[in-house]
Amino acid sequence: MAVKIRLQRHGSKKRPFYFIVVADARAPRDGKFIQKIGTYNPLTVPATVQIDRQKSLEWLHKGAQPTDTVRRILSYKGVLYLKHLLRGVSLGLFDEATAMQKFQVWHEEHEGKIRKKQEEAAKERRNARRGVAPRRPQRPAEQ
Predict the structure, then answer these.
(1) pLDDT in tens, 58-93
(2) Cα 83 to Cα 54, 61, 62, 124, distances in angstroms
(3) Which residue segment(s) compose the domain that 80 sits in?
(4) Which CATH number do you get for residue 116?
């Protein structure tokens, strides 16, 4: 049985909300699934993703193939990087503690970038409510 990790659409018209599910490749998009492993809301800035890292890693090790969009989501959340590090552990390149330390360093940097994006978006929303135009870089004067 071919197993895919894919998105299952929910939400109303023009207001999408997705469940990240593990399903048989032959099942319809919004039909029967094996396990729900997370959610994805593309309407927030930046997009909100909640995923069970352990379940998704377990399914990837079992051979489940993520779709293109889910692959990007898993990469964004660090699941594919963690799989890569655990592969290095199984090959004997380094121990598991080192792999987890590398992942924690990456995760902290990534979370910092996400917080920065959220703060910038909130600042733009506040300025838009006040009627302040967004600042654009000025062009140098032509001579």
Answers:
(1) 999 999 999 999 999 999 999 999 999 999 999 999
(2) 10, 8, 12, 36
(3) 3-130
(4) 3.30.1320.10
